[in-house]
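Contributing new records

If you add data, match the layout below exactly. Sequence lines come first and carry their own label; structure lines follow with theirs. Keep one chain per record. Anything else will be rejected by the validation script.
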Amino acid sequence: SMTIEGPCLFTASILPVRERLVLRDGSKAKLPLQVRVGYFRHPAFGHCLIDTGYGAPLQRTGLHLTLYNALLKPTVLSAEPISNGLAPLGLRKDDIQTVILTHFHADHIGGLSALPGTRIQTSRQAWDAVKRRSKTGNALAGVFTRLLPEDLESRLEFFDAAATVQAPLGLGPAWDISGDGSLLVVDLPGHHDGHVGLCFPKRAQPLLYATDVQWLMRAVLEDRAPGFPASLTEHDPRASAESVTRVRGFAARGGEVVLCHDPARHPLDLSAGMPS
């Protein structure tokens, strides 16, 4: 039978950010935002990562990346964040066979250079946008093309080739990328070109890894998405609001939601780097 092992999540780096930047009417207290990487195993994909974190060392070359690092001050937790994150599972980065990229922001693609030869699944819309923009246009959109492997395009496979099915609990249409209904890619537009989440509908409680639909679950559940200046990072604020509404509905109907950056510990989090 086509069974999934996992998913689970590990933290590759920390972003210290004031709560009011990521939560409307939030406090001045600093939050240790996580940069999570997901892991699962599936017969169709083998050992699989959902995104790759920043990678280490975060390449400090180039003006745009230098400015980005100065602004966000990410702390990469080790020289081998992927292998270290996988260690509790008895795995290393060389065991990974497939990477699912939810979008092309630096904290999601930065670790790709540590994973040569893997299959890479992503949205055609996301990749088309990267190809369409200039290097500077990409950098302004949070995409640093120098972080991408040179052979990336030859390794890409697109979600859009899969059949479309309905995701559970009102999430709407999704791509059945595993072909057996056990792993669905859900379009969650707004945050970035082609931004998606992953739904695991066959768990006792359907799970949605909603990636960067917001930074904090409180922003989703309490309808407290931040405004300016955080809104500058949104590709399409109206689409983003619609995606948040859909995710909130999924949670209200009994779905479980995890985000990439929420500092609160989640039961699926492996221990490394998590605040206790």
